[in-house]
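Researcher: I'm comparing several assemblies side by side, and this is the next one on my list. It has 910 residues spread over three chains. Same procedure as the others: predict the full complex and return the structure.
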Amino acid sequence: MAILEISELTHFFGGLRAVYDLNMTLEGGELMGLIGPNGAGKTTVFNLVSGFYRPSEGDVKFRGKSIVGLRPHQVTALGMARTFQNIRLWNSLTVFDNLCVSQHHLLGYGFLNSVLRTRKFHESERKVRKTAEEIIDLLGIRHYALELPKNLPYGLQRRVEIGRALCLRPKLLMLDEPAAGMNPGEVDQLIKLIRWIRDEFKLTIWLIEHHMRVVMNVCERMKVIDFGEEIAEGTPSEIQQNRRVIQAYLGEEEPLHAHGS
Amino acid sequence: MRRNIPILGYAILCVLGVVLAKADVLDLYMQIILMFIGINVILSTSLNLVNGYMGEFSVGHAGFMAVGAYITSVLNILLFTNSSVFGPPVLSPSSALILFPLTLLAGGVGAALAGLLVAVPSFRTRGDYLAIITLAVNYIVKSSIENMQVIGGARGFMGMSNVINSMKEVVDLPWTLIWVFISAGLTVVILQKFVSSTYGKGIIALRDDEIAAEIMSVNTQRMKVVAFMLSSGLAGIAGGLFAHVLGYINPGTFTIMKSTEVLVMVYLGGMGSLSGSVLSAIGLTIVLEAFRPLQVYKWVIVPLLLILLMLFRPEGIMGHRELTDVFPRLRQLLGLKPKLSE
Amino acid sequence: MFLETFLQNLLNALQWGSFYALIALGYTMVYGVLLLINFAHGDIFMVGAYVAFFIATLLLGQYSSPFLPPVLVFAITVVATMVITSGVGVAIERIAYRPLRRKGASRLYVVITALMCGLILENGNLALLGASRRNFPEMLSKTAYNIGGVNFTNVKLLVILTTIAVFILLETIVRKTRLGMAMRAISYDRMAVPLMGIPVDTVIVFTFILGSSMAALAGVLFATAYPVLEPYMGALVGWKAFIAAVLGGIGEIRGAFAGGFLLGFIEIFVAALFPSTLRDLIAFSILLVFLSIKPTGIFGVSRATKI
């Protein structure tokens, strides 16, 4: 069953057309990629889907329900989580607290309970902490749980950010360039991690990535966009052969490898 | 429960203070200073919630204080005293003893509602533009009161000492002192519980990265409303107490100058440090009082000292830390759980 | 009749707005370069008025000579005041702000320090000179004109024309000179500019000189128009000028002028139409509504956050 259906999604920034007539469907449990040259509008698509921007036209259905017009935290509460291109952890909260706070929508208590420390409060806090600890153990970051994120190396920060997204118990996890700025060793670990997360948590993963090794090793299917418009869709091997994709990445002239090999 | 040691200790100190005041060991002057300390603790910790924990820059705290001060005072005069403005008391003057905390709370609620004037624009505005909005709200409140002739306008409003006196006639205790102690204690406890809960940490997340907070499930608008209303509501309670300590208020008391004083306490103590705010409220109140004999020079020397202090400790006395971070022993002593189960 | 009243108020508003605009300039330029709300700036305006008072008294009293016509005295006073007052502004920057900046303190701590500097200036003045008000000597003999029922004086005209001239001058400085361009560059990108070999400290000092001398100019003009000085005269005007700067879009020179004049208009016209006690209430309510609708002021641009 389709978990995410995007139809005729269009978005303008002033006069600039960032996304145009995008249609796509993500099936439950899928590992989908979204690729395209720099400035193609990939992150904008993520921002539209997660409710940060309201699309100029078109519709986004998540688990059968339209989410256009919802505020981001409401979209999140429906079971969608994401990471950011530039890591956006909360740097004055510990790693552990980062994982706890991202379960804000699951708290089920408010100001009065937090001050009066009622049973509801303690039960809820226990649940939140348990989830956070589970994720911490699953990702193997217990050692760093009480550190501030800004003191961790880049690769670990990425891991924490993915952990924070997992704490939301999402049905759909959106990763925005998870391999950006990683060294080769970290990239290998990341590839394993993403596959393992999908199997362990049985969720759908949709990722934006430039790093071809990640894309080719992780994604089962991918969509390519350029100037906000779809130019191709298919399996990694199909995409590798696609002429329009090669043109988009390398320019209008004859592809380079056509001369050599 | 070792965790309750600070609360117990504070309660004992308060009882001691009240007993000493009753026995006239603490003279009226000392009592007033103690009350100012208490009120300043409420003001600085509550402003720290917005300026420190949430990272906004509110410069109009005195406006909310004024709202609380006037609501509580007017209610009390109306209900419990025979005044030229409102005529005979609505209720028996002795009932003030029981109902005083309620009127105090009413002042807090009124101030919290005034806090919405800042909270709602804060959905779209951040930083320095929001600072101007708080400044404007401060002026609007002050100017509105000046234009309400029923409650004295610019001349001010008085008679609150009658309320306290009628409370004393029933049971002869220093009631204002008692309510200042209770309110200051409760304020610190409420704020501490709030910011240490996962719910309250949402506002720290909001400060660090508002976009990430919103996308990662924190209802940022609601958190802003909660923080602004809590902060201004507590300022309102401080205002109510302030009015009854002085027995007389006028709009000129609640100007930007007063807001500045509170701002200084927050930043001197350290943004996002409750214990810092408490310490600096106590310290600054005492210093300002000690320098009173210097008259005009007081307001030259105190700012100079503050500038020097800032040069040596550019993040305030406590920085982002709490007392328990500076003295880890304290944490053990209080039996605070380590944050992770091992 | 209606038109005359309107024109009269318009003229008053232009003069009143001129003071706000000149002071708002200092806020806006320092903010553009340092992201610092320099709350001592209102008191720099006060310092300017007092410095002018002493220079003028000196020139007219002890050292008065027939070779110095009053107009020349006025010119000397203006220039000397601007120089001395910029000295005060720069000194505050060097002594109080720069060390904090070097230590990487949060900018809000610098703001608090600025508030403290303002207090020191106000109360230092009070302590040194006493609480008595001072009468500013009259250097320019006031001449009143009446054209079509609208009254105005040569001083009023001078204030308005000077402000317009300053606007043109500053816009030119910022757009055409190297230092001016460096100022704009810094407000665009705080990280890259020092790396490009631009001497940031020089730019900062230049900014403070410009801002403080404009506040000094406002001080002289204000004292000429309303010749009574007191130590707290800068506090309220300063806050309002800051509001004007934000109203116009802080960091923008034309914003300071637009905001200053706008605030002047609001205040004068509210006072003309309603009881004067309602002036602050209505003026600030308008401000609140305006900023709620357009949070970045008239010329301010909200910077899109990239995620």
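Model: For your comparison table: The two ends of chain C are 58 Å apart (CA to CA).
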